[in-house]
Automatic annotation (TrEMBL):
Annotated InterPro entries: CE1759_FMN_reduct, Flavoprotein-like_sf, FMN_Rdtase-like_dom, NAD(P)H-dep_FMN_reductase
Source organism (scientific name): Streptomyces phaeofaciens
Domain NADPH-dependent FMN reductase-like: 1-147
SUPFAM superfamilies per the UniProt record, alphabetical: Flavoproteins
Pfam families: FMN_red (PF03358)
Keywords from the named record: Flavoprotein, FMN, Oxidoreductase
Stated name of the protein: Oxidoreductase
GO molecular function: oxidoreductase activity
């Protein structure tokens, strides 16, 4: 199995890459997946050229192939202007629109304030739903104050477990029960008749 991590962090070191590495470590702790990291910072020029000439450069083509062939994706972006970064969006704009259909994806983001945590739901989840990926229920947002605080490790572990289950084909849903219902169902008409006054 192959897990590909797409990190849109711009600085070195980057909190975005740090979060990506923590998520990847939590997934590989549950699977035997081989991890490949795609640093979008290193592909910025080739992504721009792809928009103007229609052809990916060598590094960008390799990154696109890796994402397309992955059994699961972790995507992490910093928050810029209340949404994902332009570099992050541009990378997914040059991917074939059908390449992510049915692919398990864990979405994550970093930002300076907890006020931007809804970026997961109003920007990232709709983007990958549009691309017909299977987005795990738990997204992970890390504000500056979250590092070393309670809550972040638990969210990382929960999201990683969900992605690992999708990658290995395990269902996290409750098994169907074959037991009879404990309650008798009374038809609505009978319930109404019981309310009518006698006479």
């Amino acid at each position: 199995m192959k897990l590909v991590v797409v990190s849109a962090g711009l600085s070195v070191p980057s909190s975005t890459r740090l979060l990506a590495d923590r998520l990847a470590g939590a997934v590989t702790g549950r699977t035997s997946a081989e991890v490949q990291v795609v640093e979008l910072r290193d592909l910025a020029v080739e992504i721009a050229h792809n928009f103007t000439n229609g052809f990916p450069g060598r590094k960008l083509a390799a990154a696109l192939d890796a994402v397309t062939a992955a059994d699961g994706l972790i995507v992490v972006t910093p928050v810029f202007s209340a949404s994902y970064s332009g570099l992050f969006k541009s990378f997914f704009d040059v991917i074939d629109p059908d390449a992510l259909a049915g692919k398990p994806v864990l979405i994550a983001a970093t930002g300076g304030s907890a006020r931007h945590s809804l970026v997961l739901e109003h920007a990232l989840r709709p983007l990958f739903s549009y691309l017909r990926a299977v987005v795990v229920p738990t997204g992970v947002y890390a504000a500056s104050e979250d590092w070393g605080a309670e809550g972040l490790p638990e969210r990382v572990e929960r999201a990683a477990g969900e992605l690992a289950a999708l990658m290995t084909g395990l269902s996290t849903a409750r098994p169907a029960t074959t037991a009879k219902d404990e309650f008798d169902v009374v038809p609505f008409a009978e319930q109404l008749a019981a309310l009518r006054p006698a006479g």
